[in-house]
C-alpha cells in the first residue's frame, strides 16, 4: 500500500490529511518537526512527501534540498499558506511536484497525491525487457518474444542514450507507456524527474496551463501563479501521451519549446528556458492528421526524431500465450487463487483467435474476468468473457453478446458470488464491474458517441476513451469521437 509522509507542525493538518488519505487506501505517517520528518523519510521510504514550507526554525527550500539529497525521485507536494507561495514557486522550479494552499481542499489534495504516487511508480519501478529471463519482484515485465517485440526492445536500447525526442506509435493498450518508461530508465536522465501528461485527459486551456504554467490573473479562476510541467521538470523527461489531441495553440507553443527550449507561462511575458527531453506517444494516424491539416507538419518532424512502432497484439500472436501466462500467474497470486493451474487448450485456442482490439489492456481485463469466473483450477472456455466464447471479433458482436455485457455487469449476483468465494479485493472488483456496465450503457445510449457520453457522465472525453480501451468495450455501433462522425 502506498505510503505518504506528512511533515507539518500543525497537528490538525496532519490529522485531517491522514483521515482524507485513509479513505483512498493510502497509509500516512506524520512528523511535526524537520528532524522527525527526515528520520521517517529514511526509515519508512515513503512514496510521496507533503511538506509544510514554513516549519519552525527551518527554511522550506533547505528541507526540500535535504529530501532531494536522500531521494531525488521522491515527489514532494508543498503545503503553503497564502503568504508564502513565493517560496513554493521557487521550490517548484527546483523540481517540486506541486503545491497546495491552506485551507486544504482535501479531495483535490487526494487527487494530487494519487498523481504523485503514479509518477513515483513510473520513475522507480524498473521495466524489465524480458524475452527469456524471469522478472524480478521489484520490476514490471515487458513481455515479448515475437520478432517485432524483440525489435522494439532493441530500439529502446538504441534511442535511450540519445538525447533526442522520441515518438512512440501504436494502438491503444500496446504498451506505449512501458516503452516511454524503459527509455527514461535507460537514459542519461534516469536520475532526474520523469513526468507524464495525458493530452487527451484535459480540456485545451487546462492542458496549456498544465504544461507551461500560468501567471496570476491570466484567465478567470487563475487566482495564483502556477508552475507548469516543462518548468518543474527542467533537466528531466516528460512523457506526453495522446499527443494527437493537442490544440493548434498548444502545438505551436510545443514547437517553439522543441526548437528553442523556451516558452512563456500563460498570461506572462517572461521567457523561461528549460531543458526537457520529450517522449511523445499517439494511437492516432499522425501522418494522416498532418495531411489533413489537423497536426502541424513541423511539429510532427521535430517530435519524430526517432520513432518506435508498437505492433498490435493480433500481429504478434506468439506473444499472446506468454502474456496470458504472465498475467494469470501474477493475478492468481494477488487474488489468492493458488489453485489455478493454467488454461485449457480449447480456451487458449479461442484467445489466440481473438482480434484483441484493446491489445494488452484488453487481455489483462480478460484474464481478470476469467479468474473471477473460474470455479475450477483450469481456465476453460465457459470462464472466458462472453464476447470471446463465440470467437467472433469484438467489432462483429451480436445483439445477444451485447446484452451479455448487461448480464455480466449485473452487480447484485456478482457481489453474492464473490462474497461466497471469500474474496479479499471486492471493492476494486465491484467498482470495475459497475464502471464497465455504466460506460457501456451510456455509450449505447449515446449511439457510440464518446463526446456525448462524456457529457452525460460529467467526465472528460479522454477518460471515456481510456475506459473504452481498458475494458475493451465495443458496441455494435462504431464508437466515434464526434457527432458528425456518428454512424447513421
Ligand atoms: N508487452 C507487455 N508486457 C506486459 N505488460 C504489458 C505489455 N504491453 C502492455 N502491457 C500492460 O498493458 C497495460 C497497457 O499498457 P500501456 O498503458 O503502456 O499502453 P498504451 O499503449 O500507453 O495505451 P494508451 O494508448 O491507451 O495510453 C499496462 O498495464 C501495461 O503494463
Automatic annotation (TrEMBL):
<protein>
    <recommendedName>
        <fullName>DNA-binding transcriptional regulator NtrC</fullName>
    </recommendedName>
</protein>
<dbReference type="InterPro" id="IPR011006">
    <property type="entry name" value="CheY-like_superfamily"/>
</dbReference>
<dbReference type="InterPro" id="IPR002197">
    <property type="entry name" value="HTH_Fis"/>
</dbReference>
<dbReference type="GO" id="GO:0043565">
    <property type="term" value="F:sequence-specific DNA binding"/>
</dbReference>
<keyword id="KW-0010">Activator</keyword>
<dbReference type="GO" id="GO:0005737">
    <property type="term" value="C:cytoplasm"/>
</dbReference>
<dbReference type="GO" id="GO:0005524">
    <property type="term" value="F:ATP binding"/>
</dbReference>
<keyword id="KW-0067">ATP-binding</keyword>
<keyword id="KW-0535">Nitrogen fixation</keyword>
<dbReference type="InterPro" id="IPR002078">
    <property type="entry name" value="Sigma_54_int"/>
</dbReference>
<keyword id="KW-0547">Nucleotide-binding</keyword>
<dbReference type="InterPro" id="IPR003593">
    <property type="entry name" value="AAA+_ATPase"/>
</dbReference>
<keyword id="KW-0678">Repressor</keyword>
<dbReference type="InterPro" id="IPR025662">
    <property type="entry name" value="Sigma_54_int_dom_ATP-bd_1"/>
</dbReference>
<dbReference type="GO" id="GO:0006355">
    <property type="term" value="P:regulation of DNA-templated transcription"/>
</dbReference>
<dbReference type="Pfam" id="PF00158">
    <property type="entry name" value="Sigma54_activat"/>
</dbReference>
<keyword id="KW-0902">Two-component regulatory system</keyword>
<feature type="modified residue" description="4-aspartylphosphate">
    <location>
        <position position="52"/>
    </location>
</feature>
<dbReference type="InterPro" id="IPR027417">
    <property type="entry name" value="P-loop_NTPase"/>
</dbReference>
<keyword id="KW-0963">Cytoplasm</keyword>
<dbReference type="InterPro" id="IPR009057">
    <property type="entry name" value="Homeodomain-like_sf"/>
</dbReference>
<keyword id="KW-0238">DNA-binding</keyword>
<feature type="domain" description="Sigma-54 factor interaction">
    <location>
        <begin position="142"/>
        <end position="372"/>
    </location>
</feature>
<dbReference type="GO" id="GO:0000160">
    <property type="term" value="P:phosphorelay signal transduction system"/>
</dbReference>
<dbReference type="Pfam" id="PF00072">
    <property type="entry name" value="Response_reg"/>
</dbReference>
<dbReference type="InterPro" id="IPR058031">
    <property type="entry name" value="AAA_lid_NorR"/>
</dbReference>
<dbReference type="Pfam" id="PF25601">
    <property type="entry name" value="AAA_lid_14"/>
</dbReference>
<dbReference type="InterPro" id="IPR001789">
    <property type="entry name" value="Sig_transdc_resp-reg_receiver"/>
</dbReference>
<keyword id="KW-0597">Phosphoprotein</keyword>
<keyword id="KW-0804">Transcription</keyword>
<dbReference type="Pfam" id="PF02954">
    <property type="entry name" value="HTH_8"/>
</dbReference>
<keyword id="KW-0805">Transcription regulation</keyword>
<feature type="domain" description="Response regulatory">
    <location>
        <begin position="3"/>
        <end position="117"/>
    </location>
</feature>
Amino acid at each position: 500500500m502506498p505510503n505518504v509522509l506528512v511533515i507539518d507542525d500543525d497537528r490538525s493538518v496532519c490529522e485531517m490529511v491522514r483521515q482524507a488519505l485513509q479513505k483512498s487506501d493510502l497509509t500516512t505517517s506524520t512528523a511535526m518537526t524537520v528532524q522527525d520528518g527526515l528520520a521517517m523519510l529514511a526509515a519508512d521510504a515513503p512514496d510521496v512527501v507533503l511538506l509544510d514550507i514554513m516549519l519552525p526554525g527551518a527554511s522550506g527550500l533547505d528541507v526540500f534540498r535535504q529530501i532531494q539529497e536522500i531521494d531525488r525521485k521522491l515527489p514532494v507536494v508543498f503545503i503553503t499558506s497564502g503568504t508564502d507561495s513565493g517560496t513554493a514557486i521557487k521550490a517548484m522550479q527546483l523540481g517540486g511536484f506541486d503545491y497546495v494552499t491552506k485551507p486544504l481542499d482535501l479531495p483535490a489534495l487526494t487527487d494530487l497525491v494519487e498523481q504523485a504516487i503514479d509518477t513515483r511508480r513510473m520513475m522507480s519501478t524498473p521495466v524489465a525487457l524480458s524475452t527469456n529471463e524471469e522478472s524480478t519482484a521489484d520490476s514490471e515485465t515487458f513481455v515479448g518474444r515475437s520478432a517485432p517485440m524483440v525489435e522494439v526492445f532493441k530500439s529502446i536500447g538504441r534511442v535511450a542514450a540519445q538525447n533526442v525526442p522520441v515518438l512512440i506509435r501504436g494502438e491503444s493498450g500496446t504498451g506505449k507507456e512501458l516503452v516511454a518508461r524503459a527509455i527514461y530508465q535507460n537514459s542519461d536522465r534516469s536520475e532526474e524527474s520523469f513526468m507524464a501528461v495525458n493530452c487527451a485527459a484535459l480540456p485545451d486551456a487546462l492542458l496549456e496551463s498544465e504544461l507551461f504554467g500560468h501567471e496570476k490573473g491570466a484567465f478567470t479562476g487563475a487566482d495564483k501563479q502556477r508552475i507548469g510541467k516543462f518548468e518543474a521538470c527542467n533537466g528531466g523527461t516528460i512523457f506526453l501521451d495522446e499527443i494527437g489531441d493537442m490544440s493548434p495553440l498548444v502545438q505551436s507553443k510545443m514547437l517553439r519549446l522543441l526548437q528553442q527550449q523556451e516558452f512563456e507561462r500563460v498570461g506572462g511575458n517572461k521567457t523561461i528556458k528549460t531543458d526537457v527531453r520529450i517522449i511523445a506517444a499517439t494511437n492516432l494516424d499522425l501522418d494522416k492528421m498532418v495531411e489533413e491539416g489537423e497536426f502541424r507538419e513541423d511539429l510532427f518532424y521535430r517530435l519524430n526524431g526517432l520513432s518506435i512502432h508498437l505492433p498490435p497484439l493480433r500481429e504478434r500472436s506468439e506473444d499472446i500465450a506468454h502474456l496470458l501466462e504472465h498475467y494469470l500467474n501474477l493475478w492468481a497470486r494477488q487474488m489468492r487463487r493458488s489453485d489455478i493451474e493454467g488454461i485449457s487448450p480449447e480456451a487458449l485456442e479461442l484467445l489466440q483467435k481473438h482480434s484483441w482490439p484493446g491489445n494488452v489492456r484488453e487481455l489483462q481485463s480478460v484474464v481478470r474476468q476469467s479468474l473471477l469466473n473460474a470455479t475450477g483450477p483450469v481456465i476453460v472456455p465457459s470462464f472466458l468473457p462472453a464476447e470471446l466464447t463465440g470467437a467472433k471479433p469484438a467489432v462483429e458482436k451480436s445483439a445477444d453478446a451485447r446484452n451479455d455485457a448487461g448480464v455480466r455487469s449485473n452487480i447484485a449476483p456478482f457481489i453474492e458470488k464473490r462474497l461466497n468465494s471469500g474474496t479479499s479485493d471486492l471493492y476494486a472488483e465491484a467498482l470495475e464491474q459497475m464502471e464497465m456496465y455504466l460506460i457501456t450503457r451510456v455509450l449505447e445510449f449515446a449511439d457510440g458517441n464518446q463526446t456525448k457520453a462524456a457529457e452525460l457522465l460529467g467526465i472528460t472525453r479522454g477518460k471515456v476513451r481510456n475506459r473504452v480501451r481498458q475494458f475493451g468495450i465495443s458496441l455494435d455501433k462504431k464508437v466515434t469521437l464526434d457527432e458528425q462522425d456518428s454512424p447513421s
